[in-house]
């Protein structure tokens, strides 16, 4: 029997995907549950596994090409005798499209025996999780091509994952990285790569793609296409905005005390918003055709610019129930994996409320566009010294920041947004220490 491998829907907003690389070649034997291809969705690169045992007979969509969700991208034959039939079926299905179907050689060459290679800076400790090799498809393919025993390598990627660069380094094709102090992984089931500590995640400025000439039109990448679609869809919702000025002296003092413990300002703000949302469930709700969806958890999504263009919103799950220090560690890990395009769909698509912070760039105030499927987004500006009148009627200097909340008026009304901002300001101005409890 011949089976199709379809372009999967890796997120609720995904309409098409791009083939990053084929892990298997035509003619290779595949097992059920084995990774066959790496697909780029609108947010991440994901391994796609085969649902069948057999042979990869024909590749319909080659690496670098795109296909709509649900379209056949390859064919798997259960027996070698069915490979030619599958190739003919693939060619007929493509019709007059002019695309080339990758076919299997008549007699696939056996894979070379792996050879143990030693390289400076590469540990011989295996990078595994519960006996399962943790390696990217590209790393596995390179190891096979270069004759590297991948089980002997120590992964440098998130969760100890072996990357293509690790394999190339073992083969002597790239120089070993400069050693960096890394915390010892916890002796749990999965080894965790700890990102280099920093005061707070800094969003890189997005430059023009390399090689883009002045005046040239550069096509959208997959992530940028998703952003365009979401923003257009977002404008269908009736939106309004409410601004508020918050004094941050107490919050700034708290940040100075906990910064050395790895706490980021992003985590502080996310925690403050999440705690305040406990009192205002409607601001954490969203619109559906059947009515208002009140979410059972408070998941704070935070907008992050991606290298090469576009943005992604990693989600801090149940931020109101998570302690500040754990929240900071989670945020650092999410940002690291987001920029490596290694987030799982639930890690970027399950937000119930979004924060967009351009204050780190010195922006005073701005308006954010409502994310699809959410009821609110909070735009946070920079905290700056301001001359203000004190309660005693004198002039003084206080640090203040402007925040603007954008809301879906089908769910949230002006009074709801104003009450939320008032309570958020009260928490930040008078009792930010409670965020550490």
Number of domain modules: 3
CATH class value of the largest domain? Alpha Beta
Low-confidence stretches: 96-100, 103-132, 177-207
Helix count?
8
By secondary-structure content and strand pairing, the structural class works out as: alpha+beta
Helix content: 10-25%
Number of strands: 21
Q: Approximately what portion of the residues adopt beta-strand conformation?
A: 15-25%
Principal-axis shape = elongated
> Main sheet?
6 strands, mixed
Radius of gyration: 25 Å
The CATH architecture name of the largest domain reads 2-Layer Sandwich
Report, as a whole number of angstroms, the end-to-end distance.
60 Å
CATH topology of the largest domain: Chloramphenicol Acetyltransferase
SSE run: EEEEEEEEHEEEHHHEHHEEEEEEHEEEH
Task: Provide the CATH superfamily of the largest domain.
Answer: Chloramphenicol acetyltransferase-like domain
Main-sheet strand order equals 12-21-20-19-15-18
GO cellular component, one term: pyruvate dehydrogenase complex
Domain Lipoyl-binding: 2-77
GO molecular function: dihydrolipoyllysine-residue acetyltransferase activity
Region (Disordered): 87-136, 169-189
